[in-house]
Design brief:
single chain, 210 residues, mainly beta, 4-stranded antiparallel beta sheet, 1 helix
Length: 210
Amino acid sequence: WPQWRGPNRDNVSVETSLLKEWPDGGPPLEWRVDGIGDGVASVSIADSRIYTVGYQDLFEYAIALDQRTGALIWARPIGRALQESRLMRWLTQRSPTIDNDRFYVMRADGDLVCLQATDGNELWRKSYPKDFGTGRPPWGYCDYPLVDGDHLICCPGGDKAGIAALNKFNGKVLWQTKLVGINRGIYGAITVAEFGGVRQYIVFDINGIV
């Protein structure tokens, strides 16, 4: 599951031979890991690694764990810790998107960060408020970048760049389009589909479906 809600972003698992019921007391514990920080981001899994983000002391960290053992592979600070709403931060789960050797994740301050998935070294970053003029949404920025070929499709959400395509390797803006009447970030996760022979990017913003 290398991104938000799985390979196709539909929250559907195609795994087979799963248990129809658990044994008394639940399945045996394989491993557990502590100390990866505070947060509500779910995990993304690719190439036998588990990726997530969490606040530790004064910073937010991007984290990679070994899927088999839970051992920490790397942890890299991606910015200072932010005060998020304890009541509403479920809106900003900000699961990482993993694409081969790249790790993409959104920060609640509006920074979209690309790291090397193998070691956590930062490759590039974009700021939604600075680079796209996106106003801050009420509970902090959130996005779930979508890899489509060599493009990284993201949703800054402002009235200048509601949806934008970046070069996934260096973050260069390839195109951007307005969402009329939207002057701040949104919380919808973009997906791709084909209808009537037309390939489309689809997202839910504050006014409806785009």
